[in-house]
Amino acid sequence: MSSYPMTPSTPLQIFMANNANEFNLIFEQAEDEIAAINMALGASYAGARSMVATSGSGFALMEEAVGLAGMIETPVVIYLGQRPGPAVGLPTRTSQEDLNLALYSGPGEFPRIIFAPGKMEDAFALSQIAFNLADKYQIPVFILSDQYFADIYYNSPSLPIEDVENNKYIIKTTADYKRYLLTPNGISPRGIPGFGDGVVVVDSDEHDEEGHITEDLDLRRRMVEKRLKKLEEIQKEAISPEFVGGDNYRYLILGWGSTYWAIREALDNLEDNRFSFLHFKQVYPLHSSTKKYLDKAEKILIFENNANGQFGNLIKLETGHEIHRKFLKYNGMPFSVEEVEKNLINIREG
Amino acid sequence: MDPRNFEMEDVDVAWCPGCGNYFIIGAVKAALLELEIDPRELVMVSGIGQAGKLPHYLKANVFNGLHGRSLSPATGIKAVNPQLTVIDVSGDGCMYGEGGNHFMHTIRRNPNITNLVHNNMVYALTKGQASPTSQKDFNTPLQVEGVFLEPFNPLAVAIALDASFVARVYCGHIQQTKDIIKEAIKHKGYALVDIFQPCVTFNKVNTFQWFEENTYYLEDTHDPLDRNIAFQRATETGKYPLGIFYHNPRKITFEENQSVYKEHKIPLYQREIEIGKLKDLIEKSR
Question: Which residue range(s) make up the domain with A337?
Fold first, then answer.
């Protein structure tokens, strides 16, 4: 892991640094976020699982290299702890303002995955899935957190450690190895330098199958399609949203990331089967079941810690469904249970 | 060893005829052959620019990344697999302009990598603007009144930061260039080789002839272990000295400082996670 300290991502950096010795990790505090992610990509290219941790403006500096990860098809996990922006914003407060930043970061077109855990157990599971999928699809994978989620503590049952699977997607190269071999599903077997008889060539320029710079425009088209093709497989593996409540709902409440418990508890308090809750821990790409839940709702509501309803807009873009009511909070504080409850009661009473 | 070990077949080279880069790639290949480096264990890292294309023209592992950022992946690669030979090939724009911050901090980190910097005092890929090392009064389509900024002095900066190996060569002298590149690769720690190189298309001032007339070699009596003298020689005005300015053999490398290599040097990709330890850590935190 290489990173540059920035609230609220610093606690993760401290945790990793403190456990580096015991767990065969290298943690490096880079001179800036640009170096941090480029170092991580170098390490990943050479076969080490790599991640960075940062927040909004720090991530803005990393954007160029998100494109590099997409182009050279090198895995990296990006932990993005959100806080209110723009620029320095409110450094020690919370927000969900950087979904669009993560979703559209980097020049050009390439696939990515964005997770947003709402529970500690989710965070544990999603982190290992993030590394596995980053390696499998050779893409950047985001874990969107925020100040509130990063700093909360609560009692939780034992974490599902027995489910941890550390899948390696690295092959031993042969003398004729091609890093960007064109395959039906877009995924080229990933070799690393020093392991096998081949050489591993990656290039931020458009490249041929071997990885060397090219101006062949037909090959360019095929390489774009190869990279984007991976999204089809990625979509099939998307994690389904968590549905809470009865099937005969009138109002479907949407949430993502750290708002999980506030909405969940409000719903439990209301004991009203007209409300059900759909929580997204994977916000991109969306699981195929999403539309089915939305189709059944008379009214769709959403709670988000931003001013534009970024996830609501994404839902509309991806499914065509209008969000009937957006509850948006962007003063830097998380939603309280009482607040969610009050808003739902108002909805119920028209 | 096959002398054509580093040769590539059917390469479409983008450099102009007569470019100084042909001398540099010749010297690099010769140095690698003499050191008997296996291309499979070699990683050439570069950014953007005419220098950044060099790794595509020889047989090796290649990480051709972003403009100015090459030292960061080079550091990452070496850190997770110290068994690899890592050579960063950059130009004056990449290294001293766009990547200036990484240049400084990589020197501080001291990874065991070689940093070759093609220094032609001009931006050639973008067709002739000033580079950080362009000399004063150099006219370009963008610096229409001539350059008035102080030229960046990479050797002085590197020596000031106690870089563990600092040298300058002129690529027209292919034998000396090869010999010093060899020393840089053999050196344990960060090694900077600033390579004077004429750009035959966009720099009509600093030509082959100009470099011949405006360079000379450090005397045999020069002591590269003396940092103050090295700094003095790096900052002297007039003709430019060539050779190994400074060498600090006592510095510990970035990799040696990593606790993961205290017991053994196995690359990280060959290591497994220990679930038991992870379980203990989680239980301890509850």
Answer: 242-349
